[in-house]
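Revision sheet: structure tokens.
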Amino acid sequence: MMSLRMNPLSLIILHMIPGAFGGEWSLKYNQTEICALKGSTVSLNGTYTYPAGLEVKVEFWVIENFNRETETPVYCRTPTDSGRVQCSVDTQQHFSLTLSNVTKEDEHEYRYRIKTNVSKDKWMGEPVKISVTELHVNTFLEVIAREAAILTCTTTCSLTDSPTFIWYKNGRRLSSRTNPFHLRPVSSEHAGNYRCAVRGYEHLPSPDQILTVRYPPKNVSVSISPSGEIVENSSVILTCSSDANPPVQNYTWFKEGETSPVGSGQSYIITISSSSSGWYYCVAQNEHGEMKSASTEVTLKAGHFYILPIVVGVGLCGVVVPLIIVLLMKRESLRRGKRQENSCSTYDTSSSPVYENAAALRKHHNENHHREQSKFDPMQSVE
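Predicted:
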């Protein structure tokens, strides 16, 4: 009876053949290509199996095109890796590599490598690629009002896990979550700074992109200086203001009732007279259109408030002032006469020269009057 014998050399050869003890080497990644935002966290995950009879001694990550002699650079060769790089592996052969705050320097192809107790029995998986990108808003820098604007949040690679986009205008979060983001129709209110972000990574937004909207003049108005009452032959300045992009190129002034313009420029000066009174308005124009302001009245009505008092005052000055002076003098004279009457009732006039002269005058007057009357009085002559 024959028996099968196996020498020690044959046994060593079998150990060197992968899968000699049953089973096959296999290594699978959850993802073979990862697109990550700069500053985010990336995890490479997978599982592996190996032939029975082998013992895994070392497992670690290597970067593609590494130096096979020195086997560098590597990740997670020892269990002391910490900080930005974290590695893990369990008894079920689940392994992972986590890189936090990734940068462009982390853009490589990574392989997971396993060494066993048999020096020639080792395994290295297929590469898994990490790409690092940033967000950017892509749009036309200038759009014309009433047209459409399309804003797209772009990346250099397709972000993993179908992200939800978030939009901001001037730092304020918008309701739209679509990418691209449509603005239709565009108005001047849509102008501003736009940026986008990905939900879960709102702290990693894109740089601001300025959207400029070009539009014809609007909110055209006229102001007058000085305001209020206007005096004849004085000057007033009418100023036309508006909101436009690009700024207004032409200002034209009109007076209602006249067909031709009366002036041009943002400011218009009027010398007030009866012929210049009326309603004025301006028309503001740029390359996208024009707009008319409401009319503003320029009139002398308020000016009469000033003119009338001055004319009347000058005309009556020669009459009123003397009259007032006479009345005041007469009033003072009456006051003095009253004071004299009051003083005569208590004043002794017997020693007053003025009183004596006045009494003599009255006596002389009475005598003369008596003589003249006796010439014509028959009863007086009989006597």
